[in-house]
Design brief:
This protein is 34% helix and 21% strand. With 346 residues, it is α/β, with parallel strands linked by helices. The protein has 2 domains: 194 residues, 3-Layer(aba) Sandwich (Rossmann fold), CATH 3.40.50; 133 residues, Rossmann fold, CATH 3.40.50.40. β14, α10 and β15 form a beta-alpha-beta unit. α3 packs parallel to α12. The longest helix has 16 residues. The radius of gyration is 21 Å and the shape is globular.
């Protein structure tokens, strides 16, 4: 029986660091990462492709859209039986979700990184690559790839891209799915999936995109602002966006709101100015749990924001809400379609 063909696509990040003058810097390619985990050859036929060599803080929407189109074509031409993307951990929760929003695949797509660079004692990159290869090669996972969606494999845990979050800046066990828990785990040579994600949101997002191609999204260079609201916020950034003729280059705004979806009442007029110009979405800055819909009947609370035209992101944290809104705006989605896409998360 032939082994599955797995493509490893490297973007850089901590997993790919080499020694610099005083610290480490991106340098390793996909071939180097595979060579550091020789046991993967027992599980699959791996091919290597180095897409970028940057820290994940330097990845861009356009670059990730190009990667999404490339993976789409690999799958469409049956060139591979699975794809593993390696990158830095700073933005994995955003990039994996972006890929999940855009791609509907019948092959596993797994994103990994590392918290310890290869120059450190006991780096985790090779183990994460081995785990991801085992996951991509698993017969049940391959058969159910469409229902599982994009996954993130870190420290032997398997996460859904829509749910995963980086919960610590430096610890090796930084990644969790705080609201749902992981999809599964790795034990010895076994892949154990004990939960499958509810993916009704995928249908809503696909409908909102209206068939827009990835190439169309790349052609529309539009960006979304993220403004986290905190104690006694005066709203200077929101005022500047709302009053600038070009809205400072933004086509939408994510409000990282307090608690169940709240901001200071004094910002109400600024929010109304913004919603008259562009989509404005409220996403909980806590990054875990659902926003309220009909509890607090006071200025600045969730009911008031809804009357002002603010869209609720539901359980999506601000960074993921920004990914989704950016994709929808670039696709030319109508205001109703955007609202419907976010409603699936409420």
């Amino acid at each position: 029986m032939s082994k599955p063909r797995i493509r490893v696509i490297a973007l850089g990040g901590t997993i790919a660091m080499v020694q610099g003058d005083t610290g480490v810097k991106p340098g390793l390619g996909a071939e180097d990462l595979i060579a550091a985990a020789p046991a993967v050859a027992e599980l699959a036929e791996l091919s290597a492709e180095t897409f970028e060599r940057v820290g994940s803080f330097d990845l861009s929407f356009d670059g990730m859209l190009g990667l999404a189109a490339h993976i789409r074509d690999l799958a469409a031409h049956s060139e591979v039986d699975g794809v593993i993307v390696t990158q830095g951990t700073d933005t994995i929760e955003e990039t994996s979700f972006l890929l999940d929003c855009l791609l509907t695949l019948d092959i596993p797509l797994i994103v990994i990184g590392a918290m310890r660079n290869p120059r450190m004692t006991a780096p985790d990159g090779p183990g994460n690559l081995l785990a991801a290869t085992r996951l991509a090669a698993d017969p049940w996972v391959r058969e159910n790839a469409r229902n599982l969606g994009v996954m993130v494999a870190m420290l032997d845990h398997i996460h859904a891209a829509a749910n995963v979050a980086k919960m610590d800046s430096n610890r090796i066990d930084a990644f969790e799915s705080p609201l749902t828990g992981p999809l599964g785990t790795m034990i010895e040579d076994r892949v154990r999936i004990f939960a499958t994600p509810r993916r009704d949101w995928k249908q809503s997002v696909t409908a909102a995109l209206g068939g827009a191609s990835i190439e169309t999204l790349r052609a529309e260079n539009k960006s979304v602002a993220l403004a986290t609201i905190s104690l006694d916020e005066t709203g200077g950034i929101l005022r500047a966006i709302g009053e600038a003729p070009d809205a400072l280059g933004y086509s939408g705004v994510i409000l990282g709101t307090m608690g169940g979806g709240h901001l200071p009442a004094r910002l109400g007029d600024l929010v109304s100015t913004l919603t008259a110009r562009m989509p404005v979405v409220s996403a909980g800055r806590i990054q875990n749990g659902y926003l309220l819909r009909k509890t607090y009947e006071v200025a600045g609370a969730e009911m008031d924001l809804e009357t002002k035209g603010v869209i609720s992101a539901g359980r999506l944290p601000p960074v993921k809400a920004r990914v989704l809104l950016t994709v929808l705006i670039r696709s030319g989605s109508s205001a109703e379609a955007i609202r419907n896409a976010f409603e699936a998360w409420n």
